[in-house]
Specification:
mainly alpha; two-stranded antiparallel ribbon; 18 helices
Length: 443
Amino acid sequence: MRKNLLKNPSLDSWIIDPMKRFMQNSSSGGIVLFVSALTAIILSNTSLSEWFNSIWHHQVSIGFDQWGLSKDLHHWINDGLMAIFFFVVGLELKREIIAGELNSLKKSVLPIAAAVGGMVVPAIIYLIFNPTGETQNGWGIPMATDIAFALGILYLLGNRVPVSVKIFLTALAIADDLGAVLVIAFFYTSDINFFSLLIGGIFLLTLAIANLAGIRNTIFYGLIGIGGLWLAFLLSGVHATIAAVLAAFTIPAKININEITFAQKAEKILERLKSSVSKSTINTSEQIRLLSYLRGLSKHAQTPLQRLEHSLQPFVTFVVLPIFALSNAGIKFSGNGISDFFNNTTNGVMLGLLLGKTIGIIGTVMLLVKFKLAQLPNDFTFKHLLAIGFLGGIGFTMSLFISELAFKNHSLVDQAKMGIMGASVIAGLIGYALMHWATKKQA
């Protein structure tokens, strides 16, 4: 019966192929993230709320005896699982710096400046509402843009959006991610254990030397990166996700053989495979050897950095971020309706994202263009810039992450989450509408 199922084309056409198409769609990650967040909010405001919240407080231990670590599931998700997300962010950053939109001053000055403006202005707006006290520590929350949501909304409009606009938003979001990582590293760390930090530095140096020595085995980098660097940072007080970004920057980004050499060798292997055709459905030992060699040849023609990024991206998009959203997006409303939003924390976060991001991004770009320090592409209009300004106000993943670091008071975390959710929904809707308007003539 199993053989019949495997041979049945309907299994592929009804289940597997639609799933593949959905996962390959550029906007799918944002959809899954939104559904996860909505599920968390709904469950947090029903009779299941106590059970739902208790899941994340379940203690999970690793190790043994005095060498063990014990944290609740929520901490393991934020410190451990999210390290994979930050690792992929680090891989993207390195790729863009080496051969992408951030690899030259001319190409990077506009998106980097826009990202800086889009971080400084939101922080100022937040501090206007929260100049002193415990709430002041939340100034970093409205500084971050959610790249998955922002790009997902942009890609809903497909080819109507000029390529230059997509590239600009991608570069801006990546530069914004770098800024958020630096903010977490320098401002949202607990008491630092310098001995653990020194141990982490030794592991980081080991990874860097391995890169220079030409070691390309990703398992080696995984063992040293997780078992050494990440664990040392976890114990040091510097947030463990920073270790993931640093580890990503040590991953080799060079190919072992160029495209021409690969093509020549691959052609020879394919010719030999043609001459070794077997009537049986089982590969011969010669065919297995040739296919194995071709697979190894393909690995040498790719950089470990891009291979890792490509393999981890679906896992991060469809597993890591949805789990993070489920464990962090739950907000329990008090039942007071609109009055829940009348507090300085919520207002500072919401207006910081909604207005601060828009003003910071657009204002910085306009100033640079006005003083001829940078130039927008010919097909990039002010309407596009206005839409990007609002899309930058979608501050979901990073903002939720920073809110957990900024406050120990759970009520303040919930207030910040309200501001994040409110601003993200409004900014997303306005950004989509404006981009639709800007690209109407190209439809």
